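Hey, can you fold this one?
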Amino acid sequence: MSKLSEKLYERAKPLWDKESENYFVSAMAEGTLDEEKYRAYMLQDHCYLIDYIGILEFMREQAEDAEVANFLKKAADSTRFEKDTVHVPNMKVLGITDEEISSTEKAPDSEEYLTYMMDKAKESLIYGITALLQCSWSYAYIARKVADRYGEKLESSPYTDWFSAYTSEEYSEANQRWIDILDRVAKDISHAEEEKLCEIFEKCAHYETRFWNIFISAKHEEK
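Sure. Predicted structure:
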């Protein structure tokens, strides 16, 4: 019998493959992405991470399984650490000020995505775990696929650190722990519930596409 994670992967892979070809990540790999687009992405991603951490903490408070609660705590702590020690310093390197950071509001598509994930987390812990996993897993998949496609050429890109972060062994191991947790808690669910989780995962993959498209101009979207 297939694991839930295998079925989730099958549903999302076509969308992830398409995203690995989008203008934004391709331009990052080529080193041709306009810095203003990257600044906009970093500001929106900062807003996203704050709410993402909040959802993880909410789920931890709801978790009755000690292993799941411990995993969610570690996930929230590590995401917060990354935000504060890597993401924010990188924003400062780009010249983004504290005022810009504090005054930036979430884009409508990002707000809708985060609201959906929180709603799923409130509905069921396993729904929330599934929704948030899609983000983590998609970044690992897309970064690896693009890095493999560009090979050594990626090393000369000013955005190479973005790919290094999401293809790192540490990130891959953390993502695998998430997958393993979900497979364990979903071990005895019904077929109907399994299909519901696949639908949530796929919907989040579509939301992820909309998030990337925030930073792509109409000119590039038409290509």
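The chain has one domain: 4-216. Let me know if you want another pass with a different chain boundary.
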